[in-house]
Amino acid sequence: MSDKPRLPPIPARQWSQAARDAISILSEAAAKIGLDPADDTHVHNLPSTQLHHPELMKSYFPFLQFLLWGGTLPGRYRELAILRVAWLRQAEYEWTQHVLIARGEGVSDDEIRRIAGPFDPDQWESADAFAIRATGELLEDACLSNETWNGLAAHLDVKQLIELIHVVGNYDLIAMFMKSTGMELEDNLEDIRFEAFAKS
């Protein structure tokens, strides 16, 4: 793949009415966390690239928003799983965005560094270890082992366990989209790229 994205983000000045309708869910989400919904700078490369298909985006983003902010799965487990997906799929855009989110959920840089390498359950608390193990199993086999299912069930209720499976599947899908379209990193994120966390 060339250095240029196959599908470049669509800048706000070029948004069609269909694109503006699709992006409205992000404006609503921005307002909820105190951002100016009229300020399009909160629209990152992922949604502005997905605007090449605004009808799909309008249907898809409510699901994504639910997984991020509307579910009951603790944010720590969600972000450990997403970072593990990003690492295993080598989806660097996904990685950089969720390093920032994971830090907000209390995941330390040392823990993020441990995500970027071979999985050692002895380095993690039990619930964390099962969330990371589950991610690897789902990506490899599309199925949780009995041991992992039962281990998760000791820490998560049924809804949370279902959400975790959907988080892994969804962010695997997003990794495919990001890598296939050649999505470029946001500016000023060099210090949280893979190389900043990968073990030497």
Write a concise synopsis of the structure shown.
The chain has helices at residues 17-32, 45-50, 54-70, 75-89, 92-104, 109-115, 126-141, 146-153, 158-181, 194-197. With 200 residues, the protein is mainly alpha-helical.
Structure description:
This protein has 200 residues and is mainly α. The protein has 2 domains: 55 residues, no CATH class; 127 residues, AhpD-like (Up-down Bundle). The chain is built from 10 helices and no strands. It is globular.
CATH class of the largest domain: Mainly Alpha
Helix amount:
55-70%
Number of helices: 10
SSE ordering: HHHHHHHHHH
The Cα radius of gyration reads 17 Å
Strand content of the residues, in percent? under 5%
Net shape:
globular
Mean pLDDT: 89
Biggest pleated-sheet summary? none
- Give the class from helix and strand content and strand pairing: mainly alpha
The CATH topology of the largest domain is: AhpD-like
CATH-defined superfamily of the largest domain:
AhpD-like
How many domains? The number is: 2
Q: In whole angstroms, how far apart are the ends?
A: 27 Å
Residue runs with pLDDT of under 50 for 5 or more positions: 31-37
Number of strands: 0
List the main descriptive attributes of the protein structure presented here.
10 helices, 200 residues, 2 domains, 0% strand
Topology:
Layout: H1 17-32, H2 45-50, H3 54-70, H4 75-89, H5 92-104, H6 109-115, H7 126-141, H8 146-153, H9 158-181, H10 194-197
Helix pairs in contact: 1-3, 4-5, 4-7, 4-9, 7-8, 7-9
